[in-house]
Write a structure and sequence with these properties.
The structure is a homodimer of 209-residue chains. Chain A is mainly alpha-helical. Chain A has helices at residues 5-9, 23-43, 49-56, 60-66, 70-95, 98-115, 117-123, 133-154, 164-174, 180-193. Chain A folds into two domains: 1-68, Homeodomain-like (Arc Repressor Mutant, subunit A); 69-195, Orthogonal Bundle (Tetracycline Repressor, domain 2), CATH 1.10.357. The first copy, chain A, binds a DNA duplex (19 and 19 nucleotides) through helix 2 and helix 4.
DNA sequence: ACCTGAACACCGTTCAAGT
DNA sequence: ACCTGAACACCGTTCAAGT
């Protein structure tokens, strides 16, 4: 639950030598990520680096010391949010009964996708800084969803043949920003995955191109 | 088939007074749109205006005279491509048998969506210059697809209850760039819409939130 | 080790001067 | 009417100077 900064930075484009940052450096990174998240949320990901630096109370040079390119800062913020979303699965699983936990997490996930539209648009920009994000996304979120799916399936509330990776992608793609309709589409999709009696048997993946 | 420039410019953010441009102005606009399309395709939509102006053989001022903001140029290029895609429906309908024409057009449409990913990412940027594009997109492409669907349905090759607007959106959202898998997903989706005998009757929209 | 901010390069946009 | 391109403002990124 407590954020492990070393692990988090391990995925940034640094070589080695990221253990034991000086206390002020650590603090700066934290404030930078917090501030950037807030600024991106209100002004979009195109917000000037200078503005973020100023609001975080550091010089621009400090931003570039920790995040060599502007896109590295964006990617780091994105990873933080992915982590938080993955953590939510554990929390919800402990707090709610399986079907309920899955429902709640999917809503949480939709919120995440919807809020991060600007970022997800950046993903398609071809910028190498974002190259590893889809992988990180899947590696973190797939196990989180898989756990919830398995529990729901064990409770007989959900089909057992759902690939979490595919579901993550499908939901993300069905989501469009501030669009009420997309939520309905997602609800329908999830509804279709729900296992109800022998009326419509889950088709074992139909072969074909 | 021949492009009507006046109509095309009618959707740009000008007031009135867009009839009968001077011949050189007309030529400049054409070359600008052609050049921009090519440059965007290779360097992405972030390509500098200066580069486009230079390659089109005009001064930057000329670009800004016709397209007050950089995003207006992008939007104009996008509209041109939408027009071309809509025109393709008429051509394909005349040239191929209904089911075949639909298949071919959907592939054409997927090509369009895939190639224009950078642009579609821009759509979610909140830039007002792109605000009217989704509407233009639907107004141009929906009738195009609708015609093809109706002919295919009349020939008994396709379900008759498919909303062309929804299908356009769904396919666009399932499309991710240079992703072979997305094409499979689209193929599966369209396959599911195909009407085959009474084994799986088309469900009349199930009510529910 | 790490921070700062002036300085540099580049890009969107404007506008005075041309034809 | 329309074109040109130098000039301006702004933003990403660097780096010499500081602690």
């Amino acid at each position: 639950m407590v954020r492990d900064e070393a692990q988090e930075r391990g995925l940034e484009p640094r070589g080695r030598a990221d253990r034991r940052l000086r206390a002020d450096a650590q603090r700066n990174i934290d404030r930078l990520l917090q501030t950037a998240l807030a600024v991106f949320a209100t002004s979009g990901v195109d917000a000037p680096v200078r503005e973020i630096a100023e609001k975080a109370g550091v010089g621009v040079g400090t931003v570039y010391r920790h995040f060599p390119r502007r896109s590295d800062l964006i990617a780091a913020v994105f990873r933080r949010e992915i982590d938080a979303c993955a953590d939510a699965a554990t929390i919800l699983a402990a707090e709610y009964e399986s079907g309920d936990a899955l429902d709640r997490w999917l809503r949480r996930y939709v919120d995440f996708i919807a809020a991060k539209r600007g970022l997800s648009a950046a993903l398609h920009s071809g910028n190498p800084a974002f190259e590893s994000l889809p992988i990180y996304f899947q590696e973190k979120l797939r196990p989180a969803l898989q756990g919830l799916l398995e529990e729901a399936a064990a409770a007989g509330e959900m089909r057992a043949d759902i690939d979490p990776a595919e579901l993550l992608l499908a939901v993300a793609r069905l989501c469009s920003p501030n669009d009420q309709q997309s939520r309905r589409m997602v609800a329908l999709l999830v509804d279709g995955l729900r296992y109800r009696a022998p009326s419509t048997p889950p088709p074992s993946s139909r072969s074909g191109a």
